[in-house]
Write a structure and sequence with these properties.
The complex is a heterodimer. By secondary structure, chain A is an all-beta fold. Chain A has strands at about 5, 10-15, 20-25, 30-40, 40-50, 55, 65-70, 75-80, 85-95, 100-105, 105-110. Chain A is about 0% helix and about 55% strand. By secondary structure, chain B is mainly β. Helices cover about 0% and strands about 60% of the residues of chain B. Chain B has strands at about 5, 10-15, 20-25, 30-40, 45-50, 55-60, 60-65, 70-75, 85-95, 100-105, 105-110. In chain B, the strands form 2 sheets. In chain B, strands 2, 4, 5, 9, 10 and 11 form a 6-stranded mixed beta sheet that branches. The chains are: A mainly beta, B mainly beta. At the A-B interface, strand 4, strand 5, strand 9 and strand 10 of A face strand 4, strand 5 and strand 10 of B.
């Protein structure tokens, strides 16, 4: 059974650009969450999608957005990139409530 | 919203000793508490979890305890080994709040041989 797949693994972008990250959940998982991980801030919740609907959103500016497609694949977009957006972006999928969240390997974004 | 605090932020133990990490949560409606281990350069992986109707759960050298009244839960690792060195995250799940999983700040554990 394939795990959670994130693409690309690495990205280097310039300030002001925008970026789109992709996450393919485990087959049968309808919930996808996104997290930002930085050395000093741990795992910060960005948003969660279930059946193409955003159910929850963390405390991030509107430059961070996402969506989920009918096949449960999810994308997140960051516009007008800032240096502080440099981080590891992790997505996790779950089968349902109160179940294990499986993480992808992450996309490491570097903004220069 | 939910707030999860985790202590200590770093923990150094001698091989064979025990390690204990504690987390507190603020929302009494939280009902699922997983622990994740993240080795350097790798993704977080679930090592143990506990639900609110259970007070303790054990899996070989790892155990988790939950005190719902005090709103805290702890991870216990016995007979630590060098491969236990990693960052450990606790989390609390609120099904009512849009199924949000809130993580603690993490504990970097170093097991010295």
């Amino acid at each position: 059974k394939a795990g959670v797949t994130q693409t690309p693994r690495y990205l280097i972008k310039t300030r002001g650009q925008q970026v789109t990250l992709s996450c393919s959940p485990i087959s049968g998982h309808r919930s996808v969450s996104w997290y930002q991980q930085t050395p000093g801030q741990g795992l910060q919740f960005l948003f969660e999608y279930f059946s193409e609907t955003q159910r929850n959103k963390g405390n991030f500016p509107g430059r961070f957005s996402g969506r989920q497609f009918s096949n449960s694949r999810s994308e997140m977009n960051v516009s007008t990139l800032e240096l502080g957006d440099s981080a590891l972006y992790l997505c996790a999928s779950r089968r349902g409530e109160n179940t294990e969240a499986f993480f992808g390997q992450g996309t490491r974004l570097t903004v220069v | 919203g939910e707030n999860v605090e985790q202590h200590p932020s770093t923990l150094s133990v001698q091989e064979g000793d025990s390690a204990v990490i504690k987390c507190t949560y603020s929302d009494s409606a939280s009902n699922y508490f997983p622990w994740y281990k993240q080795e350097l350069g790798k993704r977080p992986q679930l090592i143990i979890d506990i639900r609110s109707n259970v007070g303790e759960k054990k899996d070989q050298r790892i155990a988790v305890t939950l005190n719902k009244t005090a709103k805290h839960f702890s991870l216990h690792i016995t007979e630590t080994q060098p491969e236990d060195s990693a960052v450990y995250f606790c989390a609390a799940y609120q099904s009512w709040a849009g199924n949000k999983l809130t993580f603690g700040g993490g504990t970097r554990v170093l097991v010295k041989p």
